[in-house]
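Re: [ENG-882] Designed sequences occasionally contain unexpected residues at chain ends

Forwarding the minimal case from QA. Structure tokens:
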């Protein structure tokens, strides 16, 4: 397994997660995960954070690519975890969505709860159980051909938040097989068109750490398609 390291110091390991790679085992399959790679290359991280999670502080969905942070010791883990909980982490994502988004900039402020469909989440009517606050800011970078290219900043960290919020405003992420299952994949994507582009946080000594993952090839090609349509 080839994993690109975007940043590393004595406290943190920031990697560029490829699309298609599970972060940790779901207990139902034997496929290799990112945690397997971490424990093979950094066995000392086995005891950091949750048991057998190799210092994972946050997660990305299997098909989402981009920046993922891991802590190399318990002190660094707690420090970063607290920043996530206190909403001090700056996260930026890029996504292609179905539809021409009308507003150039907008804030989606909708609580998220369990969907009526098993295993899914919702920010629409009919949610089940506890509703949790969820806020996502976005701006439109490009429109064309019935699609929009967005930059998004989730201010909270709910499961599937960006996907659920975009579904709730009727602009689901391209090739989202969970929340837009009736729509065909488009713009050349064969996976969820969501990329975690950057992550900014404070290191243990107070220094600011900002890590950027370059747009993958399928995003660059989709950008060109939108650009050609727009022109």
């Amino acid at each position: 397994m080839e994993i690109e390291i975007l940043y590393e110091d004595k406290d943190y390991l920031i990697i560029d997660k490829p699309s298609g790679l599970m972060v940790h085992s779901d207990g139902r399959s034997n496929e290799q995960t990112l945690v397997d790679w971490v424990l093979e290359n950094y066995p000392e991280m086995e005891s950091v954070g949750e048991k057998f999670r190799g210092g994972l502080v946050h997660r990305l969905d299997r098909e989402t690519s981009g920046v993922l942070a891991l802590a190399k010791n318990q002190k660094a883990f707690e420090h970063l975890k607290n920043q996530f909980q206190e909403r001090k982490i700056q996260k930026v994502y890029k996504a292609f969505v179905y539809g021409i988004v009308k507003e150039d900039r907008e804030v989606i402020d909708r609580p998220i709860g369990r969907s009526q469909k098993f295993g899914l989440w919702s920010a629409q009517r009919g949610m089940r159980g506890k509703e949790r606050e969820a806020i996502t800011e976005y701006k439109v970078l490009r429109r064309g051909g019935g699609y929009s290219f967005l930059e998004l900043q989730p201010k909270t960290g709910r499961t599937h938040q960006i996907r659920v919020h975009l579904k709730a405003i009727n602009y689901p992420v391209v090739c989202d097989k969970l929340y837009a299952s009736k729509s065909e994949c488009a713009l050349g994507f064969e996976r969820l068109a969501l990329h975690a582009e950057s992550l900014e946080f404070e290191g243990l000594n107070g220094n600011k750490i900002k890590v950027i993952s370059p747009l993958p090839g399928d995003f660059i090609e989709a950008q060109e398609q939108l650009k050609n349509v727009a022109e």
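QA comment: On inspection the terminal residues look reasonable. The chain has one domain: 4-230. Proposing we downgrade this to a documentation issue.
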